[in-house]
Amino acid sequence: MNKFEQLGLNEQLLKAIHDMGFESPSEVQEKAIPVLLSQETDIVALAQTGTGKTAAFGFPMIQKIDTKSKTTQGLILSPTRELCLQIAHELKQYSKYYPSLNVTAIYGGASIIEQANQVKRGSQIVVATPGRMKDMISRKMVNISKIQYCVLDEADEMLNMGFYEDIKDILSHTPKEKSTWLFSATMPKEVSNIAKKFMNQPHEITVGTKNSASENVQHEYYVVGGRDRYLALKRLADTNPDIFSVIFCRTKRDTQKVAEKLIEDGYNAGALHGDLSQNQRDMVMKSFRNKQIQMLVATDVAARGIDVDDITHVINYQLPDEIETYTHRSGRTGRAGKSGISMVIITKSELRKISAIERIIKQKFDAKKIPSADEICEIQLYHLASKIKNTEVNKEVETYLPAIEDVLEGIDREELIKKMVSVEFGRFAEYYKKAGDINVSNNGRSEDFSSEGKVRYFINVGSRDGYDWMVLKDFLKEQLGLGKDDVFKVDVKESFSFFNTDATHTENVLATFSEFKLDDRFINVEVSKNAHENRNRGDRSGKRSRKGGRDFNKGKDRNFKPKSHRGKGKPKKRF
């Protein structure tokens, strides 16, 4: 018996779960599904975005629906049309072995007549945005007087968007004896008031701590001048060549402006905001899911429909007005058991907001510096060398090799490598040649920005080998015998990484990895040669490892994997 069977799900759902490749339920699913299947009860479930909430309420609702009846029995309210469409799509996947079950999405920006006709033909489950649902009720296009189950998904976000009166009006057209299931990432007073007003002794489920952020997300902030935000954004992107990110701006205007500047500067970027048509939004999201867009610039409202598990970074180009919104933003990464990084670009006057967020999410931020020109060029050079090494040779090239060899005759191997790398690398070197330091002193916080007494290392493993910042940090701590805070600033790239320790640990680090092999592969660690990072290191700053310097992915085994060590309502709280 698999873990989903133990929750009490029937055969049709289990077959669909197997088809989708789900192996084990998430924590919110384990806690919510048995309760919702065995009882007719109201429920309040607090869980972060990306923890499987749709399945937590979707599976029980599908199993309880009477497919022989064409009456609308389930209503799911969600804040945005993107999320509405996403939920409807997932429910259709879950119910693929229920041929008589129909799910209809009701949202603005599409034909209201066509949506009404779909419901009239018989939709047992309706997924809707509050505005469109209220409109259809007032026009008598939909009847929800006999629903048995009502879900308020992303309840905190719906209230944050000013849907309190709409929700109240919609619920007034539903029967009192229904079961109401409220799912939310945070529990501000407005959500608590909804629960008290419209629910009867709800069963409470909390995954993690109330209003806390995911433990899989590392939180960082960078202090720059107000005019340097965009320069900081570019440097963070250049320091992470394989970035797959969502960048948050406060306004639609800023969102469009930042996206256009990124595209103009040669980045694979796109904008997602409310001024786009539904077709434009769909095209942007399709490109993002296919990773044709690496940097998606979005407003908070538009981003509610983003459901992509592989996002590596969330970048707060501007902080939100409400503290709780940060939790939603950072929840875009670190999903489905993976780790992620949430970066905040702030000015000196905004430092107090970091402390306020820390109190809410119950996690500390790392104070970090915008990378220097030397650091960026170093990382780009490693990335390029690794990319060349791992590129599969196109056999058609062999036809042209004799002529190419004639052109390159007389150039020795070392000179040829330099020339090949320079062709691609020259763009970064030229751009950053005269780039200055854009960091602002971090007065008022206890963290120390200086690199004095700290050493930065290069290690020839990365995300391609199955590492993320958490797994690599645990691996290093275990091998070096160091404590929780002794390994820090772990930055994982595709085929290499960097990490820091205090200078007192340098001898231990280099000695441990001098002849280190894992699964018949040499793990090469050495002191990074970046001048900014290596000052005050004494005579070790120029030494190479005993394996003869940087050897990109030496003896790399593509099957190599690391040993994992973890398996408008009332006024809002403002900064």
Automatic annotation (TrEMBL):
Residue intervals of the Helicase C-terminal domain: 216-376
Residues covered by the Helicase ATP-binding domain: 34-205
Gene3D superfamilies: 3.30.70.330, P-loop containing nucleotide triphosphate hydrolases
Keywords: ATP-binding, Helicase, Hydrolase, Nucleotide-binding
Compositionally skewed regions (Basic and acidic residues) per UniProt: 531-560
InterPro entries: DbpA/CsdA_RNA-bd_dom, DEAD/DEAH_box_helicase_dom, DEAD/DEAH_RhlB, DEAD_box_RNA_helicase, Helicase_ATP-bd, Helicase_C-like, Nucleotide-bd_a/b_plait_sf, P-loop_NTPase
CDD domains assigned: DEADc, RRM_DbpA, SF2_C_DEAD
Positions occupied by motif Q motif: 2-30
Domain of life: Bacteria
Cross-referenced SMART domains: DEXDc (SM00487), HELICc (SM00490)
Disordered: region residues: 531-575
GO MF entry, a single one: ATP binding
Domain DEAD-box RNA helicase Q residues, every copy: 2-30
Compositionally biased residues, Basic residues: 561-575
GO CC, any one term: cytosol
Family per record: Belongs to the DEAD box helicase family.
Protein name: DEAD/DEAH box helicase
Organism encoding this protein: Galbibacter marinus
